[in-house]
Specification:
With about 100 residues, this protein is mainly alpha-helical. The chain has one domain. The chain is about 65% helix and about 0% strand. Helix 2 packs antiparallel against helix 3. The relative contact order is 0.20. This is Prephenate dehydrogenase. It comes from Pseudoalteromonas byunsanensis.
Length: about 100
């Protein structure tokens, strides 16, 4: 179980650093009059809120990982849900490179 949490945290660190750069890029685009969108992800991505920047989504996944780490046993369904959200973040962040 600990290995899974460690891997999730490693991925979160990568996503966090990439999200800071992507958010900066989004700020620049918005200042230029671009970036007229409501949210980065659609409802089917698994997030329960809408945001125009990556950082709130990263913090949401981090909270999920923390909750998993505090559990006595890994809830496989919840783990799959967290991995899905992390995967969505990584895929979208890859478009900002």
């Amino acid at each position: 179980m600990q290995t899974i949490i460690e891997k999730l945290n490693e991925n979160l660190k990568v996503v966090y650093r990439q999200s800071l750069d992507a958010d900066k890029k989004l700020d620049e685009l918005q200042q230029q009059g671009h970036g007229k969108f409501k949210a980065l992800f659609t409802e089917d991505a698994g997030f329960t809120f809408e945001a125009k920047r990556f950082k709130p989504y990263v913090l949401d996944v981090a909270a999920d990982v923390e909750a998993l780490s505090k559990a006595d046993q890994i809830d496989e369904q919840r783990l799959a849900f967290v991995v899905k959200k992390l995967q969505h973040l990584l895929q979208l962040l890859a478009t900002f490179k």
